[in-house]
Amino acid sequence: YLIIDVMKIGFLPNFSGFLSLLILSFSPFSFAYYPAPRMMNLLAVSKLLAVIYVLSSTSKLFSLSSSSKVLSESHWASFFHQASLGTHLNYKFLSNMSWRFKAQDIVDTEASHVTGSSCIKTETGKLIRISPESIKDLEQFVKDFLLSLPCTTVICVTLLGGAYTRLLQELLPLPSCVHAWMMLSRFNSINQPIVVLLPVNAVLQEDADYDDDDAITSFRELREIKDCGKNWHCPWGSTIADDVAPAFKLIMEDNYLSSRSSYGDSLGQRSLWWNRRTKLDQRLCEFLRKLEDSWLGPWKYMLLGEWSNCKNLDTVHKKLVRDLKCKCKANINESLLRIVLGGLKGAFKGEECIAQLCFKKGCYVGTVGYSDNSSCGTSSEASNGVERLSELALQLIHKAVDELEDDSGHREPTILVLDCEVQMLPWENIPILRNHEVYRMPSVGSIAATLERIHRHEQLVKGLLATFPLIDPLDAFYLLNPSGDLSETQLLFEDWFRDQNLVGKAGSAPTAEELTLALKSHDLFIYLGHGSGSQYISRHDLLKLEKCAATFLMGCSSGSLSLNGCYIPQGTPLSYLLAGSPVIVANLWDVTDKDIDRFGKTMLDAWLRERSSVPVGCDQCSSVQDEAKNGRGKVNKKRMSRKKLPETSDISLCNNGCDHRPKLGSFMGQAREACKLPFLIGAAPVCYGVPTGIRRKPSL
Which strand ranges, in their side-by-side order, compose the sheet holding 476-480? Predict the structure, then answer.
């Protein structure tokens, strides 16, 4: 409250003293000493600092004086933003890794030829820790953090309500209709971060949105006749998202009730059941479209990955930067300009807004109504300055986009780090992302921890060096219909698994020992049964694993996370991540068996087809590994270690290993479309984890 009061009068104390008070109030002892309420306070302070830095870049009223000549407001804002997300889980990842590292230290000492193991360990520590030992080290700590980021683009998403909304309402000249704010941060190791603070419009869904009186009546009847045994339990309780997007919770409840209602024997009853389900599918599709339009607007292109193998992008981008600086005398943000170019023609649906945004510092505050020419600025003075330049700038940008139109390759994956307030939403299925490769992780630190653990195992056991993990989908163990009541699922998959020479169990429950052995000795675990399979292997048993397979969990709500106030979110995907699984495909909500079977069969087919096209010895991968072993593969860190953090860098510097081939998550889009209900069922599966490639083991 002191910080808020100080901000209201337009004055902030000395920068160092200001941060000292905040950070020293949460001393950097081990996270083991943080009780849950204090940890939540730590996250809240980080979130507030991120907001303050965004505001400080957009108006002199909120400016922060800083002695840093290297770090911009967007660097500080993105650092504190990510620190506010999942930090309580970072301790679990760190402690889970520590005892394994201690056990492997002897191996590292004896096998000193293992390349870079200590280096990886050091870089991971920079990403998992939230604060330095001393306030004097803060700037260097943030610089080290940013340079240690993965090459893959990370998008942090936070929904702000309550006190934040009231604060921003007082500080910014906005209408009173703003119910919440969304903060987006985009960063990786090669570009300057971009942080935006956007007003969130309510996503409402009236009965008129699905204009069918019979469907409306049938859903109302379902809600009225539901008994205690059929009540839907909301796993996330109540969040800000329920206030600004109430339609989603209603869709989830109707999905639960309709999926558990019987077909009936008559043709009319079956027709009514399918009518209900189809209308729900349409409602979810429309909800996601509205969410993208009203929450993101033209900023939706921030969520896309970098272009890969787009030969002229770097050349065109550099030339455009020079032209805009020389001809428009504009101090542009190169990272944002790259996103505009990457959006190609589609980015110009909000071209007036985009033109203004290219001429700011990397932190942006939006206002209500994206179609308004002045909607993207908080300062009329800045807006007028941009107007004089925008026409010429747009001509230059249009010309650059035309040059790139026929030269687009494919998109690199993105990793979403979602606030607890929005993690239940299927972000991967908004229109801009639905056909792209997207993963989700609980924190930025957990990305580093997962890659670190897998790298160490691969290097020690197989001597492999790759940017991302690799699995062979034929090295799989399946658990099919262990409860014995999904006969059609078993009929569809059992013979097919045998034809592929997969090992596994069908029609009966395994022991915990069987599953433990399967998870640590195979590359892939396939579960086709009820729930997440936690009834067959406990979280405690999972966390004891030294290695864990990639996981394909097709049961109801297998990917759902439960929230309980200020305590750490709970869910099977988090347990598998902590156990070392590189990727987990699981369902955010309840699904019906036949349609999710279509999704599962399409995904597994696609993985095996990709495997069959992978050569046993990939020349490109072998050359990269040889360079790394000979010490020539360290160009990334050398290039990035210069004193000033770069605005942009060549994306090709990050393409190592098997990154030129499709990864597991790249097939999600086509599998969703295989479902009869491509949104109600197809949008339920998401990928937790990190981008994971497909390889072909010589022994299989």
Answer: 363-365, 194-200, 180-187, 153-160, 414-418, 438-441, 685-689, 583-587, 550-553, 524-528, 476-480, 503-506
